[in-house]
């Protein structure tokens, strides 16, 4: 198309010697020029070229590549931060497991040595004797609790039987005119025994509840502290033996560093052991005082209630319950009335 335009331009008349003749109008030339302008390069498709005109394709920087590289850098940074956090947690758990495993190994070694008579152990003779007395006392009190519960169950069944027997005597008194009086006073006797039996059950149940609290809460709490103390004693002896073994070895720089670390651990275990030993001594003292106070009250209650019941002294039996602030629930009062719930 360009050749055609140039050829047409060559055939035009050129004015000579200042002769300014008019160029003939050529519609086809104008149309060709317009077509060239339309078919020219699209400016919107140009790329940024570094290095000026004639630069190679390596200098082209696509806009999409700039935006994508920033996003990739941001995501990689967050990923690295998450990896560092995960790695830190893993290292911390690994250190914890390592310390636990080392401590378990030392304590197991010390336990085996003590069992076979090869290792030495720290012994507090007075405290050990008190702990042994407590364990023996707890077993005996557990036996008392078991027997008292059995007595309560048997006595409850007897009271229920007396109640049913009294109802039967009362019914027969109405239906047997010839034995009305005999059935009548037997019915009254059984009802009285049933009432006194329910009063005695209230006293015995209070006794059982108090012994149960003493044995399964107060004594058990002290024994839990004693168990912690015994574990601390084992750990203390394990680290003490480890320090003694290291002290008998060489004295080079590495060995001295290990001795210093063992000395530090030994001091930590010693402080823990002495602290728990002090706790056990205090709890044993308070437990003994509490046990004497509780058992003095409960044994007096049990004796007075049993004596009054089998002596047939209803007034003394009721007075015993008042003395120890024991309130009986009336028959059929398992649930509070609607007035009590308001």
Describe this structure in words.
- With 342 residues, this protein is mainly α.
- Helix content is 77%, strand content 0%.
- It has 8 helices and no strands.
- The chain has helices spanning 2-10, 27-38, 63-115, 125-175, 180-247, 253-310, 314-323, 338-341.
- It is elongated.
- The relative contact order is 0.07.
- Residues 1-30, 36-67 and 332-342 have low confidence and may be disordered.
Distance between the termini: 108 Å
Strand percentage, roughly? under 5%
Query: What quaternary form is this?
Result: single chain
Number of strands: 0
Give helix % range. Answer: over 70%
Nearest-angstrom radius of gyration? 52 Å
Structural class: mainly alpha
Specify the biggest β-sheet.
none
Outline, from the CA principal axes? elongated
Descriptors:
disordered C terminus; mainly alpha; 77% helix; 0% strand; single chain; 342 residues
Structure, briefly:
It is built from eight helices and no strands.
Q: Topology of this structure?
A:
Layout: H1 2-10, H2 27-38, H3 63-115, H4 125-175, H5 180-247, H6 253-310, H7 314-323, H8 338-341
Helix pairs in contact: 3-5, 4-5, 5-6, 5-7, 6-7
């Amino acid at each position: 198309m360009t050749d055609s335009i140039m050829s047409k331009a060559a055939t035009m008349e050129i004015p000579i010697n200042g002769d300014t003749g008019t160029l003939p109008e050529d519609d086809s030339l104008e149309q060709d020029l317009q077509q060239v302008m339309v078919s020219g390069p699209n400016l919107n498709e140009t790329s940024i070229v570094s290095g000026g005109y004639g630069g190679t394709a390596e200098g082209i920087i696509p806009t999409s590549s700039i935006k994508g590289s920033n996003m990739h850098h941001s995501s990689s940074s967050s990923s690295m931060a998450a990896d560092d956090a995960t790695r830190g947690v893993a290292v911390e758990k690994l250190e914890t497991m390592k310390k636990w495993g080392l401590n378990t190994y030392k304590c197991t070694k010390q336990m085996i040595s003590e069992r076979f008579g090869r290792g030495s152990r720290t012994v507090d003779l007075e405290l050990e004797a008190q702990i042994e007395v407590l364990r023996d006392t707890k077993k005996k009190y557990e036996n008392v609790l078991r027997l008292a519960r059995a007595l309560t169950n048997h006595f409850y069944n007897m009271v229920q039987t007396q109640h049913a027997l009294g109802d039967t005597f009362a019914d027969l008194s109405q239906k047997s005119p010839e034995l009305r009086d005999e059935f009548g006073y037997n019915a009254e006797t059984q009802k009285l025994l049933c009432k006194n039996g329910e009063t005695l059950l209230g006293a015995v149940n209070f006794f059982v509840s108090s012994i149960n609290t003493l044995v399964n809460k107060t004594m058990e709490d002290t024994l839990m502290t004693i168990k912690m103390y015994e574990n601390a004693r084992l750990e203390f002896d394990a680290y003490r033996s480890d320090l003694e073994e290291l002290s008998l070895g060489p004295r080079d720089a590495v060995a001295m560093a290990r001795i210093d670390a063992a000395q530090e651990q030994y001091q930590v275990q010693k402080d823990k052991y002495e602290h728990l030993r002090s706790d056990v001594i205090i709890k044993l003292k308070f437990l003994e005082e509490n046990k004497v106070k509780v058992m003095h009250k409960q044994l007096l209650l049990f004796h007075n209630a049993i004596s009054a019941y089998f002596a047939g002294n209803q007034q003394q039996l009721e007075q015993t319950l008042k003395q120890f602030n024991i309130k009986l629930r009336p028959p059929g009062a398992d649930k509070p009335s609607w007035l009590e719930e308001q």
